[in-house]
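Note to self: keep these together.
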Amino acid sequence: MAFTIRAASPTDLPSITTLDIAAHKPASALLNMNLLPPDDIYALYLSRYAHFLSQPDRYQFLVAITSKNETTNGGDIAGFLVGARPKLESFEDDEWNPVFPEDAPVEKLAWFSGLMKLMKEDKMKYFKNDMWELEALATSPSYQRRGVGSFLLTHWLQEVDTAHGTLYVRASRSGRGLYEKLGCVNKGEHSVDVSDHGWTQPIVNTNMIRAAKGT
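Structure:
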């Protein structure tokens, strides 16, 4: 099956949100720890992607779309990518700040906020503001193992390489192999024990850097 890439639009966001949750839920501790009801999780993810889409100068938001053939009318979103350009002084503070429901469990959210702070502190050991960053990459479960992720990432890396940019990726265990194939190098791992919260495996992220072309 052939795929094409285009810029994401506001009407894509519900499908992108559903896709992302479905793609990551099997292996995601945070999606399986019942921090919030499913509708609240969906709203949280949707707000994050609306934030990215609202800042086209800062973020490149791409979707891979199925092409028409005998078995499909085409237009299905097979995967998506959000890539961040280097943060310049001219950019306003563009951090996404999640808003939780008023009735959300205070203790769980306090723990989650602390976890996010630890992860950000670890990231900043490797990330610099002049780097490009892969914010999100996901493939629909219906189209996995068909090269969608590699197709999207290779397409976006053309812009990164044209700008002679250095890329930072914070990779999960499942994504690390793809990034290594495209030139990213492991610079350090960060592991968090979440067994007290019902998930037996630690959350492990790998800080990866892809050097600028020609360096």
